[in-house]
């Protein structure tokens, strides 16, 4: 049976094929928005993100907490933190995210 993750991976593969055919560059980029990104976690997701960026693709990845970027033996939190140009937190609920926000803001928020 086909899963949500399987459908998402097929869609990303199709976008990679289109990007390769259209030779994306700075004036012609593809933006891929993935909600509930943690559903796509696999051992190859890190390589997929790197390859997509090198092909001119930009990713908008939505998830509830950064802890969700660690799932099923795959941990791409460091990749997401290092390779993210813009982070937007609507709210933080897990301890790790609260501590990160405090560290980045320079003051405690209680």
Description:
- With 110 residues, the protein is α+β, with helices and mostly antiparallel strands.
- The protein has helices at 4-22, 45-54, 77-83, 95-105; strands spanning 30-34, 57-61, 70-71, 74-75.
- Strands 1-2 form a two-stranded parallel ribbon. A two-stranded antiparallel ribbon has the order 3-4.
- Helix 2 links the parallel strand 1 (30-34) and strand 2 (57-61).
- The termini are far apart.
> Helix content range of the residues, please?
40-55%
Order of helices and strands: HEHEEEHH
What is the number of helical segments per DSSP (H or I, 4+ residues)? Answer: 4
Rg over CA atoms, rounded to whole Å, is 16 Å
- Strand line-up of the largest beta sheet: 1-2
